Amino acid sequence: MAKSNRRKFIIGTAGILGTTVLGTWLLRRPILRQLMKGDFNPELLTSAPGEEDYCILTVQQTEGPFFFPSPARSDIREDRKGKELQLKFQIVNHPDCTPVEGANVEIWHCDAEGTYSGYPEEITHDEWASAMFLLNNSETMDDKMHVNPVNENKFLRGRQQSDSNGEVAFTTIFPGWYVGRVPHIHVKITTRENREVLSQFYFDTNLCDEIYTSIEPYSQYGKCPLKIENDGVLASTENAFGLMFSIAPNENQVLSTVTKIGIVNS
């Protein structure tokens, strides 16, 4: 295996697993610790198309270990506290940018304190607890790692079908961060023809820092210690063109974004 591919494999594994016993073992060895460092170029993470006329093919990324089917709904907050975030997605064919009607659009992300619904709170900011939980509860199939949920919570998970304009909208909160990753939201799209996009969308670091240092409950943990260039999932991807949310306050001063997702035309 070439050096660059070996580095991407190791970094990708670390990113998918979060922090594991394997990752802890690797980090204690100087040569492997160097390989474990993310080598992603932040310039390759660019803003997603919004309401502009153009579209791009959305880059695929890993599903991650914390996926399970979401309930059909647009407001996914339940009882979670945090900064409100309005998300609108438009699903379009690439390269002609025509809307995709009837696609199943599913999103999931952690809460303001870094917890995914269905999984223990204790693993979010404790590297060793995270390692032990993943080691003891994960299973791998087709090179994908998955962890079955341990409770019935489903906050910050939802799915909808795209309308005739290819659009869906969700009301959620700005996600927090947890060990091993930069802040992100997972998106999974499946069309009627079983075409699929599986990816993750990211946030501007300055916006994250502002929210994480000034608003409860984010501020109890402060800024995310991991930088974009060191994120394992991003480092295992050749590029992340179009995977950065463009977020701004709407007329009601609520953070909002319109994100166009391109899926290869059948």
From TrEMBL:
The keyword Secreted does not apply. Gene3D superfamilies: Aromatic compound dioxygenase. Keywords: Membrane, Transmembrane, Transmembrane helix. Pfam families: Dioxygenase_C. InterPro entries: Intradiol_dOase_C, Intradiol_dOase_core. It comes from the Bacteria. Residues 78-214 form the Intradiol ring-cleavage dioxygenases domain. GO terms for molecular function: ferric iron binding; oxidoreductase activity, acting on single donors with incorporation of molecular oxygen, incorporation of two atoms of oxygen. The chain crosses the membrane at residues 9-27. This is Intradiol ring-cleavage dioxygenases domain-containing protein. It comes from Fulvivirga sedimenti. The lineage of its organism: Bacteria, Pseudomonadati, Bacteroidota, Cytophagia, Cytophagales.
